[in-house]
Design goal:
Largest sheet of chain A: 10 strands, mixed
Shape of chain A: globular
Number of helices of chain A: 5
Number of strands of chain A: 10
Helix content of chain A: 10-25%
Oligomer: homodimer
Largest interface: A-B, 25 and 25 residues
Chain lengths: ~250, ~250
C-alpha cells in the first residue's frame, strides 16, 4: 500500500481547526478526507502532524494517508487543489516510506505568532495578526524568553489539565523580532501543549506591558498552575510554520 | 484654512470603489468623510487622487481635505484609524500647502496587477491576486509590453467611450516579472483611462496564451476600438501602489 505525504497551507479563519468533527465541512482534515475519498474511491483517513485550533493558520502542515490509488503524486496534487476552496492548498505531495507517520515521527515544530502593535491597521494581513495596541518593553520580553527557553514543565502554560501525560517540553528557540509595527514571536521546540504558544505569547505580552513582572516568571513556571500565567492570545495571530522530521 | 493630505491603504474587496455614492458606507471616500465629519463637526469633503473601481485595492491612495479643526496631524491619524474598519488604514497625515489638490496635481501613478499562475491556491493573498491557470509565453508578453510603452491613443484600452476628452496617455514603465507562481505587472504612467490597466493586463494575458497574436497588437492600438483588445482582467488583482506629485 502506498503512503502519501502532503504539505498543506491554510488560512484557518473560517475553520473549526484541523481535526475532523461531525460537521465535516468545517475542518481542514474533513475537507481533505472528503476530497481524497472521492478521488480514490477508498475510505481515506489522513493523519496530521498535530491539531491546530479553530482559527489557527498553517504555512506547512504535514499529513499522510494510505491508498491503493495509482495516480502520480503530481496528479494527486492537481486533483486535490482543483477541489479545495481558495483558503486551503496542497503545496507538496510525496511518496513516503511505509513506516512514515506524520504525528508519531515529528521531531520538532516551528510556530510563528504575529502581533500587530499599532493603531494603524494591517489592512492586507489583518486576518493573520493579533492587533495589540499599547507600549511593549521588548527588552523585558526578551529576558523572559530566555527564562522560558530550554526544558521545563510547562503545566502553567497548558490550557487543559493533563493528568497522566507529561507536560515537560523543550523550547529550542524563542525569538522576538520587531519588524516595523509587527512583533514576531518564533517558537521552535520538540512539541507544544494545548494552547501553549498562545498562553506563552499572552504572558510575554503582559510582561511587555508590565502587568506581569519579569521577576515573577520563574515562580509562574514552578507553580504549575495555569491561572498564574497570562491570558491566552487569540488564534488569529498563530501560524504553524514548519514541522520537522529526521 | 488648513489643507490636510492623507495616505490611505485599503483592501477593496468589500467596497463599491473609492468614490462616494448614495450608500455612504460602501465606498472608501464615504467611510472617510463620515469619520472626518464626525471628528471636525464640519461637512468634510475629501478629494482623492482618482477613483478606484469596485474591488480594486490601494497601498497608497492620496487624498486631501480642508478643515478649520485644530487637532495635530498625529491626533487626526489616531482618531481616524480608531474608527476605520480593519480593511482601511490611514498611513500618513501631513499638512499640505493651501494649493495642493490630490487629483489636479498628480504627475504620475504606479499600479501593480498580480496574476497567480498556478492550480495551487495562494492561500494567504487570495484576495489580492487574479488566479489564472494556463501556460503563458512571457517572452511574447514582454515584447507586447514594449509596443504598449510610450505615448499612444489608448482608446482601444478604455472601458468607456470618451467623446470629448483625450485618450492619449504615456506609459513610462510596463514591467512583467515572474516571482514564483506570480506574474506581476507594474504600470507607471502619467495617468490611466477607465479600466485601462485591467484591459491592458487582459490583453497581455491573451497574447501570453496565444489567443491574440503579438503581431496584431499595433493594429489593435491603431483601431481605437475597445472590442479589438482583450478581456478586462478582474478587479481583485489590481492595486494602486503609488501616486506621484512634483
Amino acid at each position: 500500500m502506498r503512503n502519501i505525504r502532503l504539505k498543506i497551507s491554510y488560512d484557518g479563519t473560517r475553520y473549526q481547526g484541523w481535526q475532523r468533527q461531525k460537521a465535516v465541512e468545517s475542518t481542514i482534515q474533513g475537507k481533505l478526507e472528503h476530497i481524497l475519498t472521492k478521488m480514490t474511491g477508498e475510505e481515506v483517513e489522513i493523519h496530521g502532524s498535530g491539531r491546530t485550533d479553530a482559527g489557527v493558520h498553517a504555512r506547512a502542515q504535514v499529513a499522510n494517508f494510505k491508498t491503493e490509488c495509482r495516480m502520480t503524486t503530481e496528479e494527486i496534487k492537481e486533483y486535490v487543489n482543483a477541489y479545495l476552496p481558495l483558503d486551503i492548498a496542497v503545496t507538496e505531495v510525496k511518496e513516503a516510506s511505509e513506516r512514515f507517520h506524520s504525528r508519531l515521527n515529528v521531531v520538532g515544530k516551528r510556530y510563528i505568532y504575529r502581533v500587530w502593535n499599532s493603531t494603524e491597521h494591517n489592512v492586507f494581513e489583518r486576518n493573520y495578526v493579533y492587533p495589540f495596541v499599547g507600549n511593549l518593553n521588548l527588552e523585558k520580553m526578551r529576558k523572559a524568553a530566555e527564562i522560558l527557553m530550554g526544558t521545563h514543565d510547562f503545566q502553567s502554560f497548558c490550557g487543559r489539565k493533563m493528568k497522566k501525560k507529561s507536560t515537560v517540553r523543550t523550547i529550542r528557540k524563542l525569538d522576538i523580532e520587531q519588524i516595523g509595527h509587527e512583533i514576531r514571536f518564533t517558537y521552535e521546540g520538540d512539541g507544544f501543549l494545548f494552547h501553549m504558544i498562545r498562553i506563552l505569547t499572552g504572558t510575554l505580552l503582559e510582561i511587555g506591558t508590565g502587568e506581569i513582572q519579569l521577576e515573577a516568571l520563574p515562580g509562574i513556571l514552578e507553580s504549575k498552575t495555569r491561572e498564574n500565567a497570562g491570558r491566552t492570545a487569540p488564534a488569529c495571530g498563530l501560524i504553524l510554520d514548519e514541522v520537522f522530521y529526521d
